[in-house]
Amino acid sequence: MTVILKYTPEAIKSAAQTIKNGGIVAFPTETVYGVGASAFDPDAIIRIYEIKKRPRFDPLIVHISSLADLEELTLGIDKQCATLIEKFWPGPLTLVLNKSSNVPDIVTAGLNTIAVRMPDHKIALELVTESGVPIAAPSANMFGSLSPTAAEHVIKQLGEKVDIIIDGGKTKIGVESTILDMTGEPTILRPGGVSVEDIEKIIGKVKILTYKKRPSSPGQLPKHYAPRIPLKIIENGDSISVNTHNAGLIAFKKPPKKVNFKKVEVLSPTGDLKEAACNLFSILHRLESSGVEMIYVEKVPEVGLGVAIMDRLRKAGGLKNG
Ligand code: TXA
Ligand code: MG
Question: Whole-structure pTM over 0.85, yes or no?
Answer without folding.
Answer: yes
